[in-house]
Structures are given as structure tokens and as C-alpha cells.
Write a structure and sequence with these properties.
Blueprint: E1 2-4, E2 9-11, H1 14-20, H2 24-27, H3 42-52, E3 55-60, E4 67-77, E5 80-87
């Protein structure tokens, strides 16, 4: 998904919408923290991705046993950041 400097979602594919629990029409403009993983700290992720060229980590979803990993790349264009979240699947 693409997010802006304020953590608002600019674009998201269907897999991201499914992971966040929203319909695609409802996700655009929403703050990433709204209903997103409870452990996400967008400012920290953004700063780390700017410092290290990318950030990675794990996310826990509140009230659910699902977990996910993410990779973030800051400023793919000015003020727009790429956040790739993958749900960890246990077999």
C-alpha cells in the first residue's frame, strides 16, 4: 500500500484491504492506525525506513492471533511511502 507522511492510506491492493479488514472503497484516506495492527507505530517505521533505506518488522493484530511482517520504503516519491504487509501463515 501507499501511505502519506501522516500515515493516511493513498492506495491499497485487495490483499492489503483484506488484511486490514476493510473494503477497498473504505480504506483510502483512512489512517493506517485505524483498525490496523495495534503495534504499528507509523512514525517509527517511517524514520527507520529513511535512515536504513528500508524497515522491516513484525506486527500483531489486536484481538486476533494473526501476525504479519512488513517492509517499508520511505519516499518512493516525495511524501509517499511504500508499505508491504504480509500475513504470516502457519501450516
Amino acid at each position: 500500500m501507499l501511505v502519506n507522511d501522516n500515515g493516511r492510506i493513498l492506495d491499497a491492493n485487495q490483499a492489503a484491504c483484506d488484511l486490514l479488514g476493510y473494503e477497498s472503497a473504505d480504506v483510502l484516506g483512512r489512517a493506517l492506525e485505524d483498525g490496523a495492527p495495534t503495534t504499528i507505530e507509523f512514525d517509527t517505521i517511517l524514520e527507520e525506513s529513511r535512515t536504513l533505506d528500508a524497515a522491516t518488522g513484525e506486527l500483531e493484530f489486536g484481538g486476533e492471533t494473526r501476525s504479519a511482517t512488513f517492509t517499508a520504503v520511505a519516499d518512493i516519491t516525495i511524501g509517499e511511502h511504500l508499505l508491504v504487509i504480509s500475513e504470516d501463515r502457519k501450516h
